[in-house]
Design goal:
25% of the residues lie in helices and 28% in strands. The chain starts with a helix and ends with a helix. By secondary structure, it is an alpha/beta fold.
């Protein structure tokens, strides 16, 4: 954990508005019964908040609140918001329902004029964020290679249906003989990659969110406005 805390801390020396790390980045994903030893250090989170300035930092970590949750921490100078993963996979290599309690509430954060929706990995396949009028959907993930073809199809679909940017940040490398494919990317409202990182190895990069692309996309395609109209009826 100390090594990953250092990586997060070192990022604060970089120039960014929003920095994003993968699901369970703080501890590692496939800890299994050891997970109870590695939940997040709240002093570390408070230190981040003091240093963050006018920026936002998002990272995945286990959180113990009586029950254990698979969470995304969203840190700004004003607040620390927590998203608890709502859809827990329990098939194949995944045993999340054995270790974690399910979250109940979505999380949308207002930041510098953007509505940022937060999800964790498998939540992508049950997303209701399109109904919330978000501008950016952040999905932090620990997706092994076996899930690659499904995410490849779903990620641009979410961008198109919500007419929003999608920032997908995935784990890369090997944990307990599971290969995580990386391939983090940012997708624009037309479903096109504006940033695509390396597969199967750690990588980082920067993308710019063009708010005019969001506005133009919503004028061209009324998917979002029609969904919102239906919800208001």
């Amino acid at each position: 954990m100390e090594a990953n805390e250092k990586i997060i801390n070192d990022t604060l020396h970089e120039k960014f508005d929003i920095a994003i790390f993968p699901e369970m980045f703080y501890s590692g994903y496939l800890l299994r019964d050891e997970i109870n030893l590695f939940y997040v250090n709240q002093d570390f989170v408070r230190t981040l908040q003091k240093r963050i300035g006018g920026r936002m930092l998002i990272f995945g970590a286990p959180l113990k609140e009586g029950y254990l949750y698979n969470t995304a921490f969203v840190v700004t100078a004003d607040s620390v918001k927590i998203y608890r993963k709502r859809h827990l996979p329990n098939f194949g290599p995944f045993e999340e329902m054995r270790y974690f309690q399910r979250g109940r509430q979505p999380l949308i954060v207002e930041f510098k004029g953007l509505r940022v929706g937060i999800e964790i990995c498998y939540d992508l396949f049950f997303s209701d964020s399109v109904e919330k009028g978000i501008d950016v959907l952040v999905n932090i993930s620990a997706s092994p290679f076996t899930s690659y073809p499904f995410f490849e199809k779903m990620l641009p679909a979410r961008a198109i249906e919500s007419q929003a940017y999608v920032a997908y940040v995935n784990t890369a490398g090997l944990q307990r003989n599971q290969v995580f494919w990386g391939g983090s990317r940012v997708i624009d409202p037309d479903g096109r990659d504006v940033l695509l990182l390396e597969k199967f190895k750690e990588d980082s990069g920067t993308a710019v969110i063009d708010t005019s692309a969001i506005e133009l996309g919503r004028r061209k395609r009324r998917v979002l406005s029609e969904v919102l109209d239906e919800l208001s009826e």
